[in-house]
Design brief:
It is built from 12 helices and 21 strands. By secondary structure, the chain is an alpha/beta fold. α9 links the parallel β6 and β7. Bound molecules: 5'-O-[hydroxy(phenylacetyl)phosphoryl]adenosine.
Length: 443
């Protein structure tokens, strides 16, 4: 452990010691916390209570960690159906923070934190940043979005708890990001991997040589990326690029992180218990086999999640890692089992696009979403068929409809969308499921 701590800047943070516990001790902690979490969910979350009762289960049924697989699943629709606060296990006066993430329809899903939850979140983010080789003395540019998205504040609190210097640049304003990176001697950056590629391109245009800057690490997540993309980022930025994973429903960023081995993401299993299931049958699959990741929060107080189906496809790696961490790893997430896609770090469901389009008159329910990458930034185009009458109208009317649709999509999704109006019957009809999303992004 000591060799990980490679600087003159102080002690190895206490939080990270949890990554190196003897497995037996880890399982004891997990069981104790799981029992408490299930009891709390059973007592405080009506939905969980009813589901457990239907199956004649009570908290006493959890006698070993493996018993988690007897419990019912929780899914995103449960959060939608109980919107906004129906899954909270704490009264609102104990909730100190709310965040939100896209749901499958117009409304987001809302997640809550008590003061203690924020402390746990900060500690798992400290473990994340330490696993990415950061420490006190680092100057961290945090370009994850601050706001309802969990990325900005999650990384911010972790960086402060680590004792590093955090610069809350949030997302956007790329030229200023580059100025900050250069002038403030930034040593690490937190953002989506695609945004970092965009920063690299823009820096080159501005004549800034990122390779020559003190920047040495990137803490990248919130969207799928590939090994090839990592290699490009590392070569063009002269940095180490680490993959971090998380989701709002569970806590935000801080669920799992790569370490210096860059070979799988360590799950902070003492707080988030992982299982992999077959997405079709719901049955658990053994370590090493690919399937859907299911997570149970072991310490979350304001909003415990029992067997939450993430829809993210991965596998668990139980073999020991050369870094010495004993918490298991998961393989990088490359795809999902549902139709959600991610544009510039923002989660989008085709159903949200559809609802926004149909709320505006004169469009037909035929549309297609085309995703491309220009200058390393995701672009989203929505092609939508309009009625024949509209198409024969004058240009001005078409243009005003296009603007109206773009605004509707913009406010429904929180991401800028290019709208193209097309004539009736232009979009290919499919015999089975409509192919709504054409993803041309090459990663
Ligand atoms: O994206 C939390 C986060 C912020 C993670 C910053 C990492 C860094 P949500 O907006 O709720 O939360 O989106 C969660 O994003 O279920 C995955 O599908 C996807 N995702 C997150 N991290 C990764 C990753 C944040 N490293 C959803 N690789 C998840 C692939 C990822 N997909």
């Amino acid at each position: 452990m000591a060799e990980l701590w490679n600087d003159q800047v102080g002690e190895f943070p206490a939080a990270s010691v949890q990554d190196f516990l003897p497995v037996e001790k880890l399982r004891q902690i997990q069981l104790r916390r799981l029992q408490a979490a299930v009891a709390r969910a059973y007592e405080q979350q009506e939905l969980i209570h009813n589901r457990m009762e239907e199956r004649r289960l009570n908290p006493g049924c959890v006698r070993s960690v493996e018993d988690v697989s007897r419990l019912p699943f929780t899914v995103k629709a449960d959060l939608r159906d109980t919107y906004p606060f129906g899954m909270f296990a704490s009264p609102i006066h104990e909730v100190v923070r709310l965040h939100a993430s896209s749901g499958t329809t117009g409304k987001p899903i809302v997640v809550a934190y008590t003061k203690e939850d924020i402390e746990v979140w900060s500690s798992v983010m400290v473990r994340t940043l330490v696993a990415c080789g950061l420490h006190r003395g680092d100057i961290i540019q945090n370009s994850y979005g601050y706001g309802l998205f969990t990325g900005g504040l999650g990384a911010h609190y972790g960086a402060e708890a680590l004792g590093a210097t955090v610069i809350p640049t949030s997302g956007g304003n790329t030229d200023r990001q580059i100025m900050v990176m250069k002038d403030f001697c930034v040593t690490a950056i937190c953002c989506t991997p695609s945004y970092f590629l965009h920063l690299l391109d823009r820096a080159a245009e501005l004549g800034v040589d990122v390779k020559a800057l003190p920047l040495r690490a990137g803490v990248f997540g919130a969207e799928p990326w590939t090994e090839a993309m990592r290699q490009r980022i590392e070569a063009e930025g002269n940095i180490k690029a680490y993959d971090i994973y998380g989701l709002s429903e569970i806590i935000g960023p801080g669920v799992a992180s790569e370490c210096e081995a860059q070979n799988g993401l360590h799950i902070f299993e003492d707080h988030f218990y992982p299982e992999i299931i077959d997405p079709e049958t719901g049955q658990p699959v053994p370590d090493g086999q690919e399937g859907e990741l299911v997570l149970t929060t072991l310490s979350k107080y304001a909003m415990p999640m029992i067997r939450y189906r993430t829809r993210d496809i991965t596998r668990l790696i139980a073999e020991p890692c050369r870094c010495g961490r004993t918490v298991r790893r998961m393989a990088r997430v490359g795809r999902r089992s549902d139709d959600m896609f991610i544009v510039r770090g923002v989660n989008v469901f085709p159903s949200q696009v559809e609802a926004a389009l149909l709320a505006v008159e004169q469009t037909l329910p035929h549309y297609q979403i085309v995703l491309t990458r220009e200058k390393d930034l995701d672009q989203m185009e929505v092609q939508v068929e309009v009625t024949a009458e509209v198409f024969s109208d004058e240009i001005r009317a078409l243009e005003s409809l296009r603007t109206k649709l773009a605004q509707a999509l913009d406010s429904a999704l929180g991401v800028r969308v290019k709208v193209s109006l097309v004539e009736p019957h232009t979009i290919a009809r499919s015999e089975g499921k409509a192919r709504r999303v054409i993803d041309k992004r090459q990663m």
